[in-house]
Design brief:
CATH architecture of the largest domain: 3-Layer(aba) Sandwich
Strand order of the largest sheet: 5-2-1-3-4-9-8-7-6-10
CATH class of the largest domain: Alpha Beta
Distance between the termini: 43 Å
Radius of gyration: 19 Å
Number of helices: 10
Order of helices and strands: EHEHEEHHHHHHHEHEEEEE
CATH topology of the largest domain: Glutaredoxin
Largest sheet: 10 strands, mixed
Shape: globular
Bound molecules: glutathione
Length: 304
């Protein structure tokens, strides 16, 4: 039985990124269906507050943010590799661009196109996550988002006319991150047409869609919670631990995304890597949980 539990939902583009990463690595995993709006009562006891999707659970370890999840999977299951050393920097930079800038340009026009499939409270929920994200206020912003996204598509198409994948002959993390945004945004006619008009981009998207999505077995949320309850997290610092003077062990910290989703996680620093922080939280029901966050993209403050 796989130890990997992905808390996700079908329509979530970032979950699709992880499904493709898991598939690329030929991994089996359990999929827990979570709601697409808050509250998420079977998720936040694990994270301590973070409500974004997906979340990766391995026993009583919780990994927030797909950037960190990919690094953890690369460590645990190095082959096949998505971040070969000579492309690691470029892959991380493109993934960060796609997960943030490309996604933020595509999100509003795409959810407006998908509005009929979404619950009525969806826009209110997202407005709480990102001030300004309202269906009514969107009109003025759409032309800018659309034109920016089409310019990005042209850059991607020009690269894909030269190489089969964004960084050469083989798929990397860069492809996974750009893929999930384009796959999602193709639901908006303006973007679907934009992709269709760029043959190399279109061909690459079809190739990415055809790749494996991992072997998922559905799991009830209560089972995932029970697994966390029954397991104690391993607190041993990894070999590549990097002490961070700003985040000393045992300091009580508050972590919050620096873009959208304002919910915080609080916990005690156990160890840090260059771009990772592991904090211990105690949940009254579940016991000890080690929550892992990337440092990039998160504000981390030491509580006084
Ligand atoms: N940087 C985060 C972004 C995750 C994200 O924005 N997820 C979306 C769904 S695809 C989300 O959580 N939306 C709010 C929700 O689903 O409640 C990551 O890489 O995991």
């Amino acid at each position: 039985m796989s130890d990997l539990i992905l808390h996700e939902y079908e329509m979530s583009p970032f979950s699709e990124k992880m499904r493709k990463v898991l598939g690329f690595k030929g991994l089996t995993y359990h999929a827990v269906e979570q709601p697409n709006i808050a509250p998420k009562p079977a998720l936040t006891p694990l994270t301590g507050g973070y409500r974004r999707i997906p979340v990766l659970q391995i026993g009583a370890h919780i990994y927030c943010d797909t950037a960190l999840m990919v690094r953890e999977l690369e460590r645990r299951f190095p082959e096949p590799c998505l971040t070969p050393p000579h492309l690691l920097g470029a892959a991380e930079i493109i993934a960060d661009w796609a997960d943030h800038r490309l996604f933020s340009m595509s999100a509003m026009p795409t959810v407006i196109a998908l509005a009929e499939l979404l619950p009525p409270e969806f826009f209110e929920d997202r407005a709480k996550m990102s001030p300004g994200f309202t269906a009514e206020g969107a009109g003025a912003m759409l032309p800018h988002f659309e034109s920016q996204m089409l310019l990005a598509m042209s850059n991607l198409d020009s690269q894909l006319r030269a190489t089969p994948f964004l960084l050469g002959e083989n798929p990397t993390l860069a492809d996974m991150s750009v893929y999930h945004v384009l796959n999602f945004s193709s639901a908006a006619p303006v973007f679907g047409n934009g992709i269709a008009a760029r043959p190399a981009l279109n061909e690459w998207l079809e190739k990415m869609r055809g790749m494996e999505s991992g072997d998922a077995t559905p799991m009830e949320a209560s089972v995932a919670l029970e697994i966390a309850r029954a397991t104690h997290p391993d607190m041993t610092p990894p070999d590549d631990v990097v002490e961070d003077p700003a985040l000393p062990a045992d300091a009580q910290v508050t972590i919050q995304a620096d873009d959208y989703g304002q919910e915080v996680t609080q916990g005690k620093v156990v160890w840090t890597r260059d771009n990772e922080l592991a904090v211990l939280r105690h949940d009254a029901d579940l016991g000890d949980i080690l929550v892992h966050y990337p440092k990039q993209g998160y504000r981390i403050s030491v509580d006084s």
